[in-house]
Write a structure and sequence with these properties.
Helix content: under 10%
Structural class: mainly beta
Shape: globular
Largest sheet: 5 strands, antiparallel
Strand content: over 45%
Order of helices and strands: EEEEEEEEEEEEEEE
Number of helices: 0
Length: about 210
Amino acid sequence: IYKTKLIINEQFPDFPLAGVFVNYDKYNSKIVLLNSLYKEDSVITNILLLDTLFNIEKIIEVQSVTKTAFAHWCKLNNDGTITVLGFGLANKNGEKYYDFYLQKVDSFGFSTVFEWSPSELPLNLLIADTRTILEDPNGNWIISGLYYDKRPCQNCYQHIPYIFSATQDFDSLIWQTRFYDLPIQNETQYHLHSMTRVDDGFVVAADH
């Protein structure tokens, strides 16, 4: 370990600060730290910009579009805006379900773009999953998530892993596929942890 530093949650000392994602922006020489503050009725998303010595240069509170939004990935764009991806509780045509979203905010945290996923099925992640969102060289997205499949019995369900690719603005689906045919079980949970690209596809690490 070359250097460590404790980042104190001074702005909201009464709430836990959960470090969700960290990224290094070479263009701006900034460390981008995505954090979530979990409250009883909502989730507050903060983005901390740090220099290479871990000094906080700016704290940005992301404008909440939906109270139940769990951010999982972010990047600092060259124009100063920030792209955030995660999943939240969508309400489409009166039907509520969790799905992925893309959000863009300005340097003050105000939302300028918010789009729900164009995937064919509503997919989401468990809160601990953090490394299953990738951006390809063309700016398109590759995301693996879970489909919550309800079974025809009381309190029966199965989490089925899927992977899909969407355009950079989340306006259309490029492709989507199920991982493989899983055996029918009740109350199974597949915890997706990380994903990386290889020459002929993608490898996802998970546990069951």
